[in-house]
Amino acid sequence: MSKNSKSVVFSGVQPTGNLHLGNYLGAIKNFVNLQKKMECIYCIVDLHAITVFQDPKELKKNILDTTAGFVACGLDFKKSIIFNQSSVSGHSELAWILNCVSRVGWMNRMTQFKEKAGKNKENASVGLYVYPNLMAADILLYKSTHVPVGDDQKQHLELARDIAQKFNNDFKVNNFFPIPEPLIQKKLSRVMSLRDGTKKMSKSEESNYSRIDLQDSADEINKKIKKAKTDSLPIPGNIEELKNRPEALNLLNIYSFITNSDLEKILENMAGKDFSKFKNELSDALVATICPIGKKIKELKNDRKYLMRILKEGSNKAGIIAKENLDKVKEIVGFISH
Ligand code: AQP
Asked: Catalytic annotation on 203?
């Protein structure tokens, strides 16, 4: 099948810890499907990671581990460009230009900053505040048309669209930057924490029991699912009755997505069952999908040379596209290049 030549897919993952089920179901699974149909650029966003302090040794390790995770989930570096963000300087250069296009009022509306900075806003890094502008630069540097992300990134993507539009208008370069479209999974846009169904599953959440890591053993998966928060009611017969039961809904959603089956059908079949029985089935389904990925990640992690080769090849390819687009941006803005 020939790839759609006008579409460019871009997305990134932060090397801030082990990849988890949320990253896989919300984003990476979709990355793998898209690489068959479109030009895809997948980035390990190390510049984003340092908006919160990272231990340098850990960061290096996490960049390689995330690369291993990408490959283990099915990304193919011959089909997609895979690289780490800091190795293409165009990301930082375009981010500065876009910092000057983006508005303070727009930044102040970003909910992720509020959540991550918490009560101690004054002490958050400036990088964390302008994180969405860097994300816009990542996307626009490659004139990307489609961005597969989890639902938590929707607001940042809307901002990237506003920035693209404002740049095109301010400099009177109609359609220079395409207005990127989000690609968000409809059925499972956000995997929630196993300890609190109102919070998203996240790498930086302290409790290990809040998430399933892709490198978890079958034993760990079983334990985590057994301990996952639910409520005292049995499984209901329809989705409507799951409305105020976030933990129950989350587990059933995960099961539906991982087994590729319709949530309504699952409820029809399981109505009245208690959660302990369902949890056994959920654990089995997770072990069958996640453990082979985890095994592959562990193997790949031992082949540092191979992982470095993937990143180098990707950064060379990304660098060529980035330079061409950034040169045009500089010309549009009025800079003199030598
Ligand atoms: N819980 C989730 N459900 C669905 N999608 C998710 N994603 C992350 N968590 C979930 C999607 O995974 C991609 C990569 O995310 P990221 O690593 O760039 O950063 P994040 O969104 O901030 O993820 P984490 O795990 O919560 O990291 P930390 O804790 O470091 O902030 C994105 O497409 C994201 O939507």
From this structure: yes
CB of 149 sitting under 6 A from ligand 1 = yes
> Within 13 A of 30's CA, how many CA atoms are on the CB side?
26
Q: Is the CB of 27 under 6 A from ligand 1?
A: yes
Could you write out the three-class secondary structure of 176-210? CCCCCEEECCCCCCCCECCCCCCCECCCCCCCHHH
Q: How far apart are CA 9 and CA 37, in angstroms?
A: 10
Is residue 14 within 6 Å of ligand 1 at its C-beta? yes
Backbone angles phi, psi at 77, to 5 degrees: -70, -5
Nearest to 65 by CA among 13, 11, 10, 17: 17
Query: pTM score, two decimals?
Result: 0.94
H-helix or E-strand spanning residue 101: none
**Does 1 score more than 70 pLDDT?**
no
With contact defined as beta carbons under 8 Å apart, do 44 and 83 qualify?
A: yes
